[in-house]
């Protein structure tokens, strides 16, 4: 590993910080300290942990503008969106401060009179997290907050593109009273740090948010020490608009779902599947809205679409547009790019494609950019089959005012998160996660603390 990690503003290419990377020995030392700290943190009372974690929430809210500026600087998303992310991210801390007090066990009626049977929950142990750049705060808090609430200690390795938010969050956690060794960050190359985490017998759980290929790799490497794993992986969300949908609502929600974070979210609508009777009308109204989106630096007033995080992401988006056009797609709006390889900034004008078909890469691969391909369907079964025709199963959306059709669609979509007339279903109190190759486990809600708990069964024998 090289010693210094340089952090750049993706909107301008300017260097904004330089962070020391950890060596293998330093990361192993962090793991060892996490293991030591676990002994004491796991023994604190639930109420004590709840109070400390709640203080962390208060500090995050107190510092929300400062934290949002850091996100816009290192990730590029518009400042108002960054502010929204901080409030959303802090919401997980608030929720799990409360859930710490609700980790219940149970008693089981015995089959004999001379036994008493109990089930208790205890923390799994030191947890290692690896997180992506697209939500530099929220992807950390929805892991760290339930882990710490459960009594686990926690080490996070943030994405190399966005380490600064992670460092600030951990500092605020310490200020709130979380012991320094119970909450740590390490910086380094994903593959190398991942291997140190998975090889260590002291780490009892790996929690990861990122791409499916890396997730598979981590699952495989966790096998040698039989670690718990939670995986929040890639998506390829379909958005179905039925002929009896409220068109205005469908367009508004499709805009929100598709273009948040410049299309760089795992739950962004990736395929718009519209009934053929309303396709023309939908495409027209939708395109008009897309034309209004302002691309630029996230600090400029009115910017709704920031930069693409890096060249790798940009090249993928451009190649998907080119592949679709080569195979017969039409660009209704957008299609332009604005970039500078020397300065390393990359922007894509929000783009709408029509005449798309299943032969095109964009219909199978996650885009992670502001491109909306629209295809059509005749029957609901056809729409559902198209929607499910992917190894991914994270989020899906559909729009209909007909409750029978709505129930039928929601029951037949193979997805972990469904938005019915709703382009933004994610909420701290609700479970978030995917089916199939989109992941294992759920984050958020009452489900989100379970992956950090072990079940212990105690059978007590009494005198005859
Ligand atoms: P990525 O390449 O998988 O990177 C994510 C994290 O994994 C980064 O911290 C990265 O570190 C690290 N990493 C890379 N290679 C690794 C390896 N071999 N072993 C261990 N760690 C490794 O994903 P990305 O392209 O940055 O992020 C976008 C992906 O995340 C998309 O597929 C998106 O759908 C998914 N995502 C899913 C959710 C969800 O909740 N399901 C939420 C957000 C994003 P470096 O920075 O050092 O490479």
Automatic annotation (TrEMBL):
Q: Which GO terms describe its molecular function?
A: succinate-semialdehyde dehydrogenase (NAD+) activity
**Domain Aldehyde dehydrogenase, which positions?**
4-458
Note the Pfam families from the entry.
Aldedh
Q: Which CDD domains match?
A: ALDH_F5_SSADH_GabD
Report if keyword Oxidoreductase is assigned: yes
Q: Which UniProt keywords apply?
A: Oxidoreductase
- Among the record's GO biological process terms, what is one? aldehyde metabolic process
- Catalytic residues (UniProt): 232, 266
Record bears the keyword Oxidoreductase: yes
Q: What does the similarity note say?
A: Belongs to the aldehyde dehydrogenase family.
PANTHER family from the UniProt entry: SUCCINATE-SEMIALDEHYDE DEHYDROGENASE, MITOCHONDRIAL
Name-wise, this protein is Aldehyde dehydrogenase
Name its species.
Bacillus pumilus (strain SAFR-032)
Chain's gene name: gabD
